[in-house]
Structure formats: structure tokens, C-alpha cells
Amino acid sequence: MPKVIFHHDNGETDVVESPDGTSVMKVALQNAVAGIVGECGGQAMCATCHVYVRDGYLDRLPEISEDEEEMLECTAASRDETHSRLGCQVVLGPDLEEVEVDVPGSQI
Amino acid sequence: MCPAHKSEAATTSVVVIGAGHAGVQTAEALRTMGHTGPLTLVGDEPALPYQRPPLSKEHLDIADAEPLPLRGTQFFTEQQIQLCTGVTVTMIDRSSSRVHLSDGRELPYDCLVLACGAANRSLPVPGSDLDGVHSLRTLADAEAVRAAMAGCESALVVGAGFIGLEFAAAARKRGLPVTVVEAAERPLGRALSAEMAEHITEAHRSNGVDLRLGAGVTAFLGDNGRVRGAIGTDGTEYTADLVLVGVGVVPRDELAVQAGLAVDNGIVVDEHLRTSDPDIYAIGDCASFPHLFTGTRVRLESVQNATDQARHVAAAVLGREDPGGYREVPWFWSHQGQLKLQIAGLRSSDDRALVLGDPADGKFSVCSYRGQRLVAVESLNRPADHMAARRLLAEGRSPAPEQLADPDFSLKTFARALAPTP
């Protein structure tokens, strides 16, 4: 089963398996992973599921849509041009069987 | 008064009535802020607490969509939050500080948070109890509506509010004929400027929705207990085997009324979200609070309002409330097919509306001014404007109305350029 590895800024790590088609945001909410809020329910409307995707996974992600691009400009923790994504737009599947992300210190 | 003493705040016993966005966020925020005392969340629906916004959007599109939980089961276990689902509160006994549940249990509290939400307003016309006449608020409602859409030949929506128009867009996506009747002269009347409402009206009409303004229904017609249509206020006969009624909500304030708390279009709270009983707070859809931006009492129905008020109350319970009171900028969103509408701030009907961008592109914002002050921004498919607006409204900054006439003006650039240094 695909998995997401969440790295927190206190050094702790959560490793969570989840079926294809699940977004990183949803994986976090369903599995009590701290630091991801997902207030809008995955509609790229709130920018509270911001994550920094680690090197090695970036080329397997979907393109950043216009909406996501604009919302990424407004995250609580500052955007990293290379690594920042909204967790609701990063979806596990055959092209992304594993992804490793850093969870920012704040979302709101 | 709750909290009794700051030193005891972390272990104070808290009961939260309502397990929607507001209730669950209160519980989470309490634990995040260091509360370790007994914490119970009571919800009357059987399911694990879930996100409501998708129910009127993608949940209707995908046949086997599962509800998106607000938090997984393990969150409640790990955080030692006692979650009581499928149980109603029958009474709040303020004299003994206890909440009585429908299963016979009694929960003692030091602090009580009312996050009771709202209930859909029903349409008091003959036939509204026919099979096939739906409303949409809960997961059970959404599953029933989705099942009904599968075999539907034509749909009628009563009320062009957010729920009605989101449903209309989902029904059109399936190719269903959809008629929407709205009593007012424009859709989304309470929330939107005339400029934005007009654009949204045209967009739904181009999408094939038969949107009739200034129209209502006087009765639903049925055969053998199933709806087959409706009679309009002007005598028009509508044919429909699925009716969605979306005519607003009423705050669930019955427990507060019964407990003798002040109620007036919702449970009356002060700027700290405290009711007329200092041990009891009310938040979210059920609470009427003095809004620091408008100077009036408001009751807002949105995820943002629910979760921001929850965080405020959690801090208050722990004796760390913001002395300035609750003052978050309200924001809201709605997806209706290709329309992504975002609203920041609160407008009133006599505010001046200035359009930013070209509505013909399908991407523009309406900035509402009271005098020289920006009070609200509605954005259609322009999320950057929305985020900039939230920031400007929070900081109390306004571009001069004349600046908006410059074709190169950008809210985002303005918000950034003048940002105060932290």
C-alpha cells in the first residue's frame, strides 16, 4: 500500500499507509497526524495543508495548478519555491507510491 | 466563572455539545493548548465527525465517496477525548452544572461549550413531506440526495442560496434538467453584491439551469406519496421527481432556551463568545456575537467562523483569551461547477461595490467600500485577491477606491507592498 512519511519540526516522524487516490491532506486527517489542518476539505481554498515535499519525489508530483499556485503564495509558513505544495493536491497512486514531506510549524 | 482559577484551568472539566467543525476544533485546540482535564464531545449524528462542505459538492459527484473525517478515530483516543456520537443532549441543568444525555448519562462540567449548529429551515407548504423532497445538511441527507440523483429525470431546487446552487451545478454535471426557483430578485442575496450575483446568475443559466427569480412554490404535487412536481407562486406547474429545498437555516438554540440563556437569532454571546451564563460559551452557526468589524450582532454559518471561534474559546477556557475579544476576519467559499467563489469580510447592501478585473473573463473581484474603507471582497476564480483581502481586512488597511480604477492595480501587490514589518 502507498505510504506517506511526515517529518515534524520536533524531529518526530509519522509513517502512514493509505490506499491509492488518497491525498496527503486526507491521510493526515484520517490518521491523527499533527500539523495539517485541511480546513476547506481539500478544495485548494484555505492553504492550511501546506507541506514541503522532500527531494526525490518532486518529479513525480502533478503540475501545480493555477489555483494551487495562488494559494501557495499565502501559506502561514513561508513558501519554498521548490518544495512547497498543498497536501490536498498531492494524491497517492501508481505514480506516487511513497512521498516524504516536512510539516511546517504553522498553518494558520 | 469558567475558568475558576487560572491555576486550575488546564484540568478543568469541559463538555462540548455538537461534534461538527466547531465542536471538534474546540476539543483539538484545548488539547493543543495544554488542557489535560476531562473533555467530552457529544454529537447527535452516528458517524465519526466529518467535514460538511464536500457534501454539497464532490460528494454528490462520486458514487462511492466516503465522508472526509474531521479527525480519524485514533485522534480522539490518543487525545483522550471522550466522543459520544448518536446521542442527544436532553437538558442542561445549570444549577448542578450537568448535561443530561438521551442515553440516561449525566455529564458534569466546569465549562460548557455550545456548538450546536443549525438546522435546515423547512418550507411550510403542502406536500413538503413527500418522498423525493430533500434538504441537505448532514451526511445522511447527502447520501439520500446522491441516491435520488441516480434515478432522477428532472430536479427542482427551491432557494438559490449556496446549497441550492452547488446542488444545481452537481445535477447539471450529470446532465439532469434543473430548475431553480428563488423568491428574491437575485441569488445569494444576503451574502453577495448585485454585480457578483448577476454574473453567477448568468453563469448558471449558460450552464443550462432554468433559474427563475422572484418565484416560489405554493405546494408540492405527488403520486402515491412520491413527489412529481410543484405549483409555483405564479401558477406555473413544475415537473420534478427530485426536489431540493435550500431556504436557509435556523440556529439550534433550543437547549439554550430551555436552560434560560439569552437567545435572539441564535444564542447571544459577548465579544468573548460567553453566553449570559459565564460558565457557558456558544460558537459557530448557533451563536449570535457582536462583530468588531461591523459594530452589529451577527450569526455566521461557515467553517472559518466555526473553527476560529473554537480556537478563541479554547484559549478563553484556559484563561488565555485575547483581551480584545474575538475579531477574526470572516471568510467563506463556494464551488458551483466552474465557479470558485471566495468571500472575505462582510458587506451590507448599502456598501459601494467596485469591480476589479473583467467579469467577461470569468475571473474578477468585487470590492465593497463603506466610505473610504474596504469592508469585503468577493472573488470569482481569483484566489490571490481573496488571500490578499483577508490580509488587508485583518490589518485594517484599504487601497483608496480610486486606485482600483488603475488597470494595473493588484490587491496582492498592494497587500505586499505596504505590509507592516513584523
Automatic annotation (TrEMBL), chain A:
Residues 2-107 form the 2Fe-2S ferredoxin-type domain. Keywords: 2Fe-2S, Iron, Iron-sulfur, Metal-binding. Its cofactor is [2Fe-2S] cluster. CDD domains: fer2. It comes from Prauserella halophila. The lineage of its organism: Bacteria, Bacillati, Actinomycetota, Actinomycetes, Pseudonocardiales. The keyword Zinc does not apply. The keyword Nucleotide-binding does not apply. Belongs to the adrenodoxin/putidaredoxin family. This is 2Fe-2S iron-sulfur cluster-binding protein.
UniProtKB/TrEMBL annotation, chain B:
Its cofactor is FAD. Residues 13-310 form the FAD/NAD(P)-binding domain. Pfam families: Pyr_redox_2, Reductase_C. Coiled coil: none annotated. Residues 331-414 form the Reductase C-terminal domain. InterPro entries: FAD-oxidoreductase/Apoptosis (IPR050446), FAD/NAD-bd_sf (IPR036188), FAD/NAD-binding_dom (IPR023753), FAD/NAD-linked_Rdtase_dimer_sf (IPR016156), Reductase_C (IPR028202). It comes from the Bacteria. Keywords: FAD, Flavoprotein, Oxidoreductase. This is FAD-dependent oxidoreductase. It comes from Prauserella halophila.
